[in-house]
Amino acid sequence: MEQHDNVLESLISDIENSTAQVIEKKPVNETFELWRDPALTVNLAGNIGALFVRAILNKLNVNEHHVFRWRLDNKYRQYQVLNHYFPGSVARTIGISQLLAENNGPEKIRELCESGFFIKCTLGHRTGQANSFDRTAELEDIIKLHQEKKNQRKENQEKEGQTEQWILQERLDLNEEFRIHTFGRDLIYGLTFIMAGSDSSKSTTAEIFVQKTLATLPDTLLQGTLIGWDIGVTNANEYYIIEANFTGFHPEYYAGFQTSGYFGDPEYGPAMCAWLNNYFKNKYQISINAVNQELIASGPFFEEFLYYQSIFSEEHIAILQNKTKGKLASALIYSGEGASPFLANLVEYFLQEDFAKNYYLITNEETVFKTVKQFSGNNQIGIIAEQKLFMPEEYPLIQQLSYQQRKKICCDKLIAIIGEPYYFIL
Q1: pTM beyond 0.85, yes or no
Q2: Helices (H) and strands (E) in the chain, counts
Q3: Which domain of life is it from (predicted)?
Q4: HEC string for 253-271
Q5: Domain regions of the chain by residue span
Q6: So what's the pLDDT on residue 126?
């Protein structure tokens, strides 16, 4: 135990006596084109979303190796550091080698597994999505392997304390789990997803918990660091950090540049990347405004991204920030003739994000039944055929207007009908 305490003490000392990254806002708004830059694709362990994230961070001169000097890809190292700064924020965690070094260590491990702990590997990739994080079934093999290397373990105890391979973690009785994204001390509103459970309304309190966590951590860890936090909510309505997914160059498992897998998700990734682009544009005056044709031709991902980045604005950031104050807007979405086919995907994304209180979709007669079918059973969505907004003699004149003219007049009509005091239009 003393050896492990010494390792943590040395680690915290190094964190607190290191220099934090300085991420500076550009003096003027700066945009650039995304392309398969060889400097960004080399050692790229993630997907196309990782290329997007890496490109922006590179323009901000982020050192992608910085946070990994403390090996924070290792879940035991994470536990040690996070629990040091915010005690009790992570489920109780014990290093396997730490217990095996004690008298009757194997028996203690077995007893802990019987009393509610489970075995988890400290290095892994997408174990939550694959439901492969619980390795308790391998308990006897893990104990045997450690026993066979007992002498070597004693000789390298300090090293092993730093690079623990297996941990015991207290099993939490979780109702919901959320993925929440931050950069530096900023919570990036609009990038929160419910990973497990059904009560998405707890996303706001989960975000508040992450903000409390950020307030406890030093600049050395946070500045320039994009993190995907997995936050669990128990039956007793307690909040815990399940895992912190650090963006950057992971040095060991699946070595290379990694980021939150949500940025490359085929369904939500384009909207997430557009939203992240919007955040960096408003916060640091750096953004992607074009994508190389070769990337666009490789699939629909970036065509969809370009559409979303053209419509997201600072207004939408303010709308989500107001959500934490209990002020939830309604969305008016015009999807009549000439509208982008990606609008329906955007509504699905907003529903995941708990973005708005209600959604009003204005569509034309030809697509109204298809739209109703797509969103059937969702009581947050109201679908309105645009011709119903006008008198029969008026509608032929409306049909002759341009897309933007129809959109404006239809939304104005609907606003007058629904009487929503707080809304935004897409």
Answers
A1: yes
A2: 20, 15
A3: Bacteria
A4: CCCEEECCHHHHCCCCHHH
A5: 2-21+68-170, 22-67+172-325, 328-425
A6: 56
